[in-house]
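FAQ

Q: What does a record look like?
A: Structure on top, sequence underneath. For example:
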């Protein structure tokens, strides 16, 4: 039990750290989201969103809540992806501070993955059926994706505009598309978390959209599609795996939905 309290304090401090990053006390200390350092409004929003997430996560650890395990799994997955993308997208920074970067990777990955192991060992989710734990993990991931989509409306880099049916949008179209899909994913995440029947049509529709979007993006091959092969493979596995996996699981347990 003590290890969970220790982890709760650590993630509580991380929550405070993320929130203060929105203050942009230094230009190189903005929040790093999916491998890119943010500034301005995107930095404030991301810092507050992840700070709030970690605060809830810390509370779940401290009070030994069952939902601490899906939160731990989702956060560990995000941390690993974020560090991999940052190393890939900012190799010059990774090279300039190799020692610090390697130490940070060990600490961040070790803490997030260690939390998963600690929560599982403590049996916090023993009252949850396996499908419930996986569903709640999917719900959290879609919630994080909603934040990602919303931030795309700010076009904080040249390649972060929302991709709609294979074409990268900009301007007002980008704002409308990114906000609309962010709301859609929030509704979908809430339906999954509460196991509502509407989660099934929403899940099927989103999975079909993701596949069609990837196919159209490949066919149209717009500028910026020449990403490293390893990045493309990982993106395909995550995008299709999460959207298709969630829809498949929801379909399998459709009789339990209310």
């Amino acid at each position: 039990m003590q290890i969970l309290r220790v982890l709760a304090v650590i993630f509580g401090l991380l929550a405070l750290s993320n929130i203060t990053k929105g203050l942009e006390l230094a230009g190189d200390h903005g929040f790093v989201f999916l491998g890119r350092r943010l500034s301005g409004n995107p930095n404030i929003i991301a810092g507050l969103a992840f700070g709030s997430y970690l605060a809830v996560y810390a509370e779940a650890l401290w009070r030994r809540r069952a939902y601490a395990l899906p939160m731990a799994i989702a956060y560990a997955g995000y941390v690993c992806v974020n560090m991999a993308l940052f190393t890939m997208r900012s190799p010059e920074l990774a090279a300039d501070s190799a020692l610090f970067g390697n130490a940070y990777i060990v600490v961040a990955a070790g803490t997030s993955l260690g939390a998963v192991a600690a929560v599982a060992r403590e049996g916090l989710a023993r009252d949850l059926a396996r499908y419930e734990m996986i569903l709640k993990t999917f719900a959290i991931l879609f919630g994080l994706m909603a934040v990602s989509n919303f931030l795309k409306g700010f076009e904080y880099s040249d390649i972060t505009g929302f991709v709609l049916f294979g074409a990268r949008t900009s301007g007002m179209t980008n704002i409308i598309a990114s906000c609309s899909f962010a709301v859609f994913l929030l509704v979908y995440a809430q339906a999954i978390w509460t196991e509502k029947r509407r989660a099934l049509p929403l899940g099927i529709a989103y999975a079909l959209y993701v596949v069609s979007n990837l196919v159209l993006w490949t066919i149209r091959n717009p500028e910026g599609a020449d990403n490293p092969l390893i990045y493309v493979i990982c993106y395909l596995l995550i995008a299709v795996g999460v959207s298709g996996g969630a829809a498949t699981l929801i379909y399998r347990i459709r009789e339990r939905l209310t």
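Q: Is there anything notable about this one?
A: The mean pLDDT is 83.
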